[in-house]
Fold this protein.
Amino acid sequence: MSARERPRGVSVARRLVQAAFLAAFVALAVAAAYPPLSFPASNVMLRLDPIAAVYSLISVHSLGVAAAFWPAWVLIGLTALGSRFFCGWICPLGTCLDAAGAVKPRALKYYEPTGSQVRQLRKGADPAPGTAKHTPPRGRAWLRPKYLLLALVLVFALARVNLLYFASPMVIVNGTVHYALMPIVPIVFIALILAAIFYRPRFWCESLCPSGALLGLVSWAGKKFPSRAGVLAVAKQPSACTSCGVCYKACSFGVEEPFTSEMPGRLRSLDCTSCGQCVGACPEGALSLDGFGRTLYVAGAVGARSATDKPSSLPGSPAPPAGRFAVSRREFLGSVGLGAVLLAGYGIGMGDHKAPVLRMPGAQDESLFLARCNRCQECARACPPGSLKPMGIESGLQKLWTPRFVPREAGCIFDQCSQACQRVCPAGAILKVDPKDTKIGLAALNRRTCLGWRGKYCLVCQERCRFDAIAAKGLRPSVLEDKCTGCGSCEETCPTNPPSIVVRPLV
């Protein structure tokens, strides 16, 4: 039976699960628009983010915020019992990268090694030049850059610096949905898709994703648990393996353990996502996809073990010898270089990063807001008048893509929308405030350009202010500071360009 004729049940099931989760993620991101859903919560997928949960525990110092990520803690617990199945079956960014890899032109695909060439791995020899790309020699567990980036994210978290806008695949996809609806070009997402098409589909996942590195370490720590406790894992029966190397060639993550392992039972690789590609490709039925100690799927030639057979693992079987961790000079220098760029961007910025910024109600504590905001754009999506816009690079990386209040676009209606931005924020970056105590900023009047102060009839600002914060003496308006909430209705409706009355941040 040829490789094309063998059953692909696990591949079909995985694609269906991936499509379902991606559709649910996009639907919930779109549903964050006012009024946001209460059940299921429109931010429930963002609260499934494991690296955001760990970040909140390290940086935010709020049990309430950390507890809000309870779906992520459940996921981390399930990962500890098995493998990083989230990356292979659920992650919306991984699904998009798989789709990009599936449609890439044949001319852009790498040349795959033949069976005889891939057998060299088992003998400990290096692959022939120009064949097996990105393949570590046997006996060395490569410390890919994603682990260094994970360390960088966690170190920055101790300093309350939030890097989740590039470290979290959930944040990247959620922001992409919002940018597409605005519309704004989602630069990071497009760059990852291009890398998937012109390089390797799962290059981001296998080498750079800090969230995947976190789940990989969690799954590695949980390998000591018995296999019957694992949610999903790949197991091997070495006695049925013929060293054909098809499993290695089928793995989009470049995991060599399904091919090289000589130990029966569950695989122990940090990078295995239990996607089942190797299981579906194995012609001899030496690999199986197991759940809670039972075989869920096995494919292979006639005469191979059936789907009901249990892997020949023994409870006390010794673990395979651990390879020494290594990282190439290029990867190390690249990771250090990225860290230097981030430090420069946060420390120096490309503008005045200390300048105050107008934020939505409940986000006036700038240091607290920057520490918690993960740039998911959920609040901007939920804002009924659309007055929240992501910042650019003008204030440096520290404020990049954080939402700012732009009164000229639309005034804030916090007293009418029940603070929708706060309700959808998954990270607790926006605090709940009483409308009576809300103070976003303070309106300032430019008398030189104001039509009323130039003797012309206007007073639009007074007519539109619903807080009676604009007084007028004749045709000349003035701001009552004790009543002004900074809602921006005056700036939005001012007929002069630029507006003669603007809302300034509180100092």
